[in-house]
Design a protein that fits this description.
Chain lengths: ~200, ~525
C-alpha cells in the first residue's frame, strides 16, 4: 500500500479567531442551560431517563408463587454467556416435579456485557433483565450479585422490567428460520416416510 | 473372511462380525440405543436399521452378519425416514425434562433427535403416559419416564455382574424398569448402569447435579485402585475432578469400572492433601519451603553414607520408581518396596469381574524394575539394629505398620513423600508433598504386565511435585543429577533397564497400553514372576 505524506506548515499562526469562537460557543451554552433551561443532561439519580421496555439492564431472577426461584439450574444461561460471568451450583428440590434448583447463582456484573443471551437461552423465563443501569459499588465483590439479591430485584418496580422473552420478540422468527435451515442441512424432511 | 461394501467402501472382516461392527471399523457410526459393544445383541430399538441391496426390508445392522458380497447403505432417505419414525415413537411419552436431567449433553436421544428429527411433538404433555420418577435405587437414581426400554441395564446385570436386580414391569406403553420392591442395587458395579443407560433413566447419585457434562474436559488415564489398571477418563473442570468414566479397553476392563475405583477421584481434591513440606522438631511440626526441605534431606543423606535405606511404593509410577532406584544406586542404599508382600496378590481376582486383591496399581512395575532388593524385613531389622541413619520413604506404607513406632526409634531421620495427611506421618521427621496420580504423567504396569500411561489431568496442590521430580532434586543436590528431565525421558530409562519393555515409548503405548514382551532364556535373567 502506498503511503500518502501530508506536510503541515507549522509556521502559520492561528491568530485570535479560534479563541473568540471558542468563547462564543461557551457563552451560547451558558445562556441555553442557565437562562433558557434547555440542558441535555438530567439530574441523575433524582431524575432518570425513560428507557425502552427492551432495555438490557441488571438481571432479575424470577420467583415461583411460593417465593422459591423459578430457575431449575439447567446452566443454559451459563453455557451461552459469552462473558462466562454466571456461576451456578445446583441442588435437589423437595418437589419431585421440579427436582433441581440453584443453591448458588451469581452474576459478575463487571464482566457481563449485557448482551441478553442468558434471557434468550433460559427455558423457564427464570432470568430477565431490568431497566436498572446504575451500577455502583466500592469493591469488586459487591458487584458479583448473588441469588438473593438477583431475586429481590424483582420487587424493584420503579425501574421496571427490561429485556424479557415475549411473543413479539424480534428474534423469534430468526430462531425458527435457523431450525428450518438446520433441518435442510441435515436432510430432515417434514413429510411422512416414503413407502419402500 | 467375508468382504462387503458399506456406503461404497469395501472392507474385509472376520467371519461372524456384524454389520454395525464392520461399519465401525470403517469409521461409520450407525446410530443405536440397545446395542452395546460389550453386551449381547438384543435388537429391540430398531434405530440401527440399514438398507441392504437385494433385501426388500430394512435390516437391523446390530444383528445382521457381515457376509460375502453384502452391499450396505447406512444413510439413505428410507433409512432416515425409518429412524425418524423410531425416534418419534420413542419420544411419544418422553417427559422432555432435559433442563434438569444430568444425561443432557451425552444423551443418545438428544443427539439423535438433533441429527434425525428436530420435530415438534404431536402429543401434548398432559396426554403422555406418566411413570415413576426419582426412584432411589441406592447408588443409582431411576427415572422410568426417560427410559427407552433398550434393556442394556438388564443385560449388563445378568451378563457382567450376574445379579439381575432389574426387570421390566407392566405391559405395552406402561412398561417400565423396576427392581423388586424398589430394593436398592447392592453390587459394586452399579456406576456402570448409569453409563450403559443411553438416556437419563439411570443416573449416578454421586454425580447428580454436580456439573453439566459439556463443561467437563476428559483426560485419558488409569484407575489407581488396584492391579487391574482399568482405563478411565478423568473428567475435570477448572482443575476440579467431577467423575471418572470408564474408557473402553477390550483387553483390560471392556467398558466397565468398579464403584470403589470410580470413587478414586475423591482423594484428589481432598482437604487432607499434603501441599507443603513440613519438618518436625520434637513434637512440633512446621511448614518449610520445599527447596529448604530438600536441602535438609540432601544434607542428611550425604551424612548417612551407606547407612541410608529407601523404600519405594507400588502406588508410584514406573518413572518414580526408576528415579528412586537411581538414587539407591548412586548412594549404595538398601532398597525395597514390599510392605506386606503385595506382589503375592497382584494377579488374584477378588470377585471374578474386575477387582483384584492387590490394591496397588503398579506392583508389577516395581517388580520389573527390580525395586525388590534388600527385603523389607531386612530393612526393618537394620533399623532395629540402629544401622539406618536416614530412611527415605516413597509412600507412607511402612509408617502405618503397628510396629513402626518401635523399630523407627533408632532411626534418627525419617523422610516420607506423601499425598495425604494421616496420623502415621507423625512418625516421620520430614514430609515432602507428592503429586497424586491424576496430577502427573507416567506409566503403571498392570497385572497382565500391560504398561499403560497416566496423564496429568489437573494441577497438583501447593508445592506438591511428582515423586520422580523430588528424587531428581535430591540427586541434583547430591551432585549426580538425573539425565532425564521429564517423565517421558525417564520412561526411556525404564525401557533400557527392563528388557521386557524393549521397543516401548509413550507414543507406542498410545491410549490403550502395551503388554510387555516376555524375554526368553537368551541372555536375560527372567524377572520375578508371581
Ligand atoms: S447478559 Fe450476556 S454477558 Fe451478561 S450474563 Fe447474560 S449472557 Fe452473560
Ligand atoms: S437458563 Fe434459566 S433455568 Fe437455566 S440456569 Fe439459567 S436462569 Fe436457571
Ligand atoms: S433404564 Fe436405561 S438402560 Fe435400562 S432399559 Fe431403560 S433406557 Fe435402557
Ligand atoms: S477393578 Fe481395580 S482398576 Fe478397575 S476400577 Fe476397580 S479398583 Fe480401579
Amino acid at each position: 500500500m502506498a503511503t500518502r505524506v501530508i506536510t503541515v506548515d507549522r509556521s502559520l499562526k492561528p491568530g485570535i479567531w479560534p479563541l473568540v469562537l471558542g468563547h462564543w460557543e461557551t457563552l451560547k451554552n451558558l445562556v441555553r442551560t442557565l437562562i433558557l433551561r434547555q440542558a441535555s443532561t438530567i439530574e441523575f439519580p433524582e431524575k432518570r431517563r425513560n428507557v425502552s421496555g427492551r432495555y438490557r439492564g441488571i438481571h432479575i431472577l424470577t420467583a415461583r408463587e411460593d417465593g422459591t426461584p423459578k430457575c431449575v439450574a439447567c446452566f443454559m444461561c451459563a453455557t451461552v454467556c459469552p462473558a462466562e460471568c454466571i456461576y451456578i451450583e445446583s441442588g435437589e428440590r423437595p418437589e419431585k416435579t421440579i427436582e433441581k434448583y440453584p443453591t448458588r447463582f451469581e452474576i459478575d456484573l463487571l464482566r457481563c456485557v449485557y448482551c441478553g443471551f442468558c434471557v434468550d437461552a433460559c427455558p423457564e423465563e427464570a432470568i430477565l433483565m431490568s431497566r436498572e443501569n446504575d451500577l455502583v459499588g466500592t469493591t469488586r465483590e459487591e458487584l458479583i450479585i448473588d441469588r438473593d439479591r438477583l431475586m429481590a430485584r424483582a420487587k424493584l418496580l420503579d425501574v421496571g422490567t427490561g429485556y424479557h422473552p415475549s411473543e413479539h420478540d424480534v428474534r423469534r422468527p430468526v430462531r425458527i428460520a435457523a431450525i428450518e435451515k438446520l433441518k435442510q442441512e441435515r436432510g430432515i424432511g417434514n413429510s411422512r416416510p416414503p413407502r419402500g | 473372511m467375508p468382504k462387503l461394501t458399506i456406503d461404497g467402501r469395501e472392507i474385509e472382516v472376520a467371519a461372524g462380525t456384524t454389520v454395525i461392527r464392520a461399519a465401525q471399523q470403517l469409521g461409520i457410526d450407525i446410530p443405536h440405543f440397545c446395542w452395546h459393544p460389550d453386551l449381547s445383541v438384543d435388537g429391540n430399538c430398531r434405530m440401527c436399521v440399514v438398507e441392504i441391496e437385494k433385501q426388500a426390508k430394512l435390516q437391523i445392522s446390530c444383528n445382521t452378519a457381515a457376509t460375502e458380497g453384502l452391499v450396505v447403505h447406512t444413510d439413505t432417505p428410507r433409512v432416515r425416514a425409518a429412524r425418524r419414525s423410531t425416534l418419534e415413537f420413542l419420544l411419544v411419552n418422553h417427559p422432555i425434562d432435559c433442563p434438569v436431567c444430568d444425561q443432557a449433553g451425552e444423551c443418545y436421544l438428544q443427539d439423535q433427535y438433533q441429527a434425525y428429527t428436530l420435530h415438534d411433538a404431536r402429543t401434548e404433555l398432559e396426554e403422555k403416559v406418566h411413570k415413576r420418577k426419582l426412584v432411589d435405587l441406592g447408588p443409582i437414581l431411576l427415572d422410568a419416564e426417560r427410559c427407552v426400554l433398550c434393556s442394556r441395564c438388564l443385560r449388563f446385570e445378568s451378563e457382567v455382574v450376574g445379579t439381575s436386580t432389574l426387570m421390566f414391569a407392566n405391559r405395552g406403553n406402561r412398561t417400565e424398569i423396576a427392581t423388586f420392591q424398589n430394593r436398592p442395587i447392592t453390587h459394586s458395579y452399579a456406576g456402570n448402569l448409569a453409563d450403559v443407560c443411553p438416556v437419563g433413566a439411570l443416573l449416578s447419585h454421586d454425580f447428580r447435579f454436580k456439573m453439566r457434562v459439556w463443561f467437563l474436559a476428559s483426560t485419558p488415564s488409569i484407575c489407581p485402585g488396584c492391579s487391574t489398571g482399568c482405563n478411565v477418563y478423568v473428567d475435570q473442570r477448572d482443575g476440579e475432578i467431577y467423575r471418572l468414566r470408564p474408557r473402553r479397553n477390550p483387553e483390560v476392563n471392556k467398558s466397565w469400572l468398579c464403584d470403589p475405583g470410580r470413587a478414586q477421584y475423591k482423594q484428589i481434591g481432598s482437604p487432607e492433601r499434603v501441599a507443603v513440606a513440613r519438618t518436625r522438631r520434637g513434637a512440633e511440626w512446621s511448614a518449610v519451603p520445599l527447596a529448604a526441605a530438600l536441602d535438609v534431606l540432601a544434607a542428611h543423606i550425604k551424612g548417612a553414607g551407606r547407612a541410608l535405606a529407601i523404600l519405594g511404593t507400588p502406588q508410584a509410577t514406573n518413572e518414580d520408581l526408576r528415579a528412586l532406584s537411581t538414587l539407591a544406586d548412586t548412594t549404595g542404599a538398601r532398597l525395597d518396596f514390599r510392605v506386606g508382600d503385595p506382589e503375592l496378590k497382584v494377579r488374584e481376582l477378588e470377585d471374578g469381574i474386575l477387582q483384584r486383591a492387590d490394591k496397588n496399581p503398579n506392583t508389577q512395575g516395581a517388580l520389573d524394575l527390580g525395586i525388590a532388593r534388600s527385603g523389607v524385613d531386612e530393612i526393618i531389622a537394620a533399623c532395629r539394629r540402629g544401622e539406618v541413619a536416614v530412611l527415605l520413604l516413597q509412600g507412607p506404607e511402612l509408617l502405618r505398620l503397628p510396629a513402626a513406632g518401635v523399630f523407627l526409634e533408632k532411626v534418627p531421620f525419617v523422610a516420607v513423600m506423601a499425598t495425604h495427611n494421616e496420623p502415621a506421618l507423625e512418625r516421620a521427621h520430614l514430609i515432602l508433598p507428592a503429586a497424586a496420580w491424576a496430577e502427573i504423567d507416567g506409566t503403571f504396569t498392570n497385572y497382565q504386565r500391560r504398561v499403560q500411561r497416566i496423564l496429568r489431568a489437573v494441577p497438583a496442590p501447593g508445592e506438591a511435585r511428582p515423586r520422580w521430580d523430588l528424587v531428581g532434586e535430591l540427586l541434583r543436590r547430591l551432585g549426580a543429577p538425573l539425565a532425564a528431565t521429564s517423565a517421558r525421558e525417564l520412561f526411556g530409562e525404564v525401557v533400557r533397564a527392563v528388557p521386557e519393555y524393549a521397543g516401548l515409548d509413550y507414543r507406542v503405548l498410545g491410549e490403550s497400553g502395551r503388554v510387555a514382551i516376555s524375554v526368553g532364556a537368551n541372555g536375560h535373567s527372567p524377572l520375578p514372576q508371581v
